[in-house]
Amino acid sequence: MFTEFLTSVIAFLVSALITLFLTPHVADKMKKRGIVGVDVHKQHRPKVPEMCGICILVGLAASIMVSLTILLNYAVDFLAFLSVVLLSGLIGAVDDLKRLGPRIKPLLTAFASLPILLMATYDARPVLPLIGRTRLTIIYPLLIPFAIAVPSNAVNMMDPLNGVMSGTCSIVVFVLTISAAILGHWNTVVLGAGLLGSLLAFYYYNRFPSAVFPGNVGTLAIGAAIGALVVIGHLEAVGVVAMMPHIMNGFYFLTSVGGLYERRQISSRPIRVLSDGRLIASSSVSSPLTLTRTILAVGSMKEEEVIRYFFLLTAFSGFLAFLTVFMMMMT
Amino acid sequence: MKKIVWLFGVLLFVWLIMLLELWLILQVILPITIAAGGFFGTLLTGVVRVGASVASAILWLWLWRSIEHALFWKIFKAHKKKV
Q1: Do A248 and B68 touch (CB under 8 A)?
Q2: Extents of the domains making up chain B
Q3: A316 near B CB under 8 A
Q4: Nearest-CA distance from B79 to chain A in Å?
Q5: Which domain holds residue A14?
Q6: Looking at the partner chain, which of B4, B30, B80 has a beta carbon nearest the beta carbon of A309?
């Protein structure tokens, strides 16, 4: 256990330091190549370097490689996890550069789950609170593509304001890593620590006011990484509870617009920017009901305030996820 | 913090409903057995159990959506009136 703990600390530091060092350089390159996104929630609409989420992938990949040299007994789990993340990142990169359709993206991210299925790094007997250990020999493998595609696309949709994606995902990954440690799933602790290091380092640049944007390469890969952590670490119920704000945001967006659409395809925006820079919810019935709009139901707010509420809601879900872990232990 | 207390309430409510549904799956759905022998009976029992569990999960999402939708418009309209 001591070796695993030490490896987790090393994985955290390696991924954090590489991401911290790499992000400004990649941001520079993206800016020079004109790969920028407009921050639409600022009055002066600044152009921010896009696709910088690639640094999270590099930091994470390096941390897994280092961990592999120390813990060879987890090699299959580590390689399956890394393959899922890199495949999803590749899909995200193609989407950033060529724009994939809103229907093809979830389908492709579902295919990114193949390494887990092929390397059989799952246990078809998940433990659920109140129920205990279940046996889903046939159904479980069929659900794995959803376990990757759903969080991947939910995180992709949860990037409305500066630092929300990296901040909320850091909280979710922290909760999953601690839960895995409580349940003694050390392979997941090492992977989670590596992912957390990258995310926190990226958050440093992505926080309000953002100096970098992750792009789909970052959001799809991080969502897939969370899904893979959940499957490999047998944290199915914990993952669902920890990601409730993400589910809330993605599911309500889809049901309110009546299907799979890209954000840019929605004509009626869910929020507006007032002349003083504050954000306000749209009063249009046809606007999608996103979590940002829901938070703004009580009136206009500064962007920083809305961001803080995102973090508070995710932290509360994390608290409920910890209660779920203790219920799983008691069952 | 006070401004979004209702959202914390929604999260707590859907978490409790999720636990209630898991308890219902344990107490009601898992004991379901189709009275047909052999492989066909086992398969049918599995299909019914999984189908009922999936239906309960969809019901959970639908309930969550309805509550959130109703509360959002209630709070939004109340605030607009105040302004």
Answers
A1: yes
A2: 2-25+38-82
A3: yes
A4: 6
A5: 2-237
A6: B4
Instruction: Count Cβ–Cβ pairs < 8 Å, chain A vs chain B.
Output: 71
Residue B35 CB-density burial (10 A; 0-12 exposed, 13-18 middle, 19+ buried): exposed
- Model pLDDT for residues A55-105, shown as the tens digit of each residue: 999 999 999 999 999 999 999 999 999 999 999 999 999 999 988 888 898
**ipTM value for the complex:** 0.88
Phi, psi of A301 (to 5 degrees): -145, 160
- For residue A34, give how far its alpha carbon lies from the nearest alpha carbon of chain B (Å): 39
Q: Count how many domains chain A has.
A: 1
3-state SS class at B72: helix
Question: Does B79 contact A297 at a Cβ distance shorter than 8 Å?
Answer: yes
Q: Which residues from chain B sit within 8 angstroms of residue A317, using beta carbons?
A: 11
Chain A residue with the nearest C-alpha to that of B15: A241
Q: What residues in A contact B1, CB-CB < 8 Å?
A: 312
Q: CA–CA separation, B52 vs B58, rounded Å? A: 10
Q: Is residue A50 part of a domain?
A: yes
Q: Is residue A233 part of a domain?
A: yes
Residue A321 belongs to some domain of the structure? no
Q: Give CB contacts under 8 A, 24+ apart, made by A123-126.
A: A123/A234, A126/A234, A126/A236, A126/A237
Contacts of A78 (CB under 8 A, 6+ apart): A64, A67, A68, A71, A187, A190, A191
The pLDDT of residue A127 is above 70: yes
Q: Do B3 and A298 touch (CB under 8 A)?
A: yes
The span from the CA of A270 to the CA of B27, in Å, is 42
Q: What is the pLDDT of residue A264?
A: 62
- A289 and A253 in contact (C-beta within 8 Å)? yes
The answer to whether residue A300 sits within a structural domain is: no
Tokens of A303: 């962007």
Q: Which residue of B has its CA nearest to A280?
A: B76
The helix or strand, by DSSP H or E, that contains position A281, with its residue range, turns out to be strand A279-281
* Contact across the interface for A298 and B75, Cβ inside 8 Å: yes
Name which of A235, A223, A237 is nearest A91 in CA terms. Answer: A223
Query: Pick from A309, A313, A327: which is nearest to B11 by CB?
Result: A313
- Chain B partners of A252 at a C-beta cutoff of 8 Å? 65, 68-69
Query: What is the percent of chain A where pLDDT is above 70?
Result: 97
The per-residue pLDDT for A83 is 97
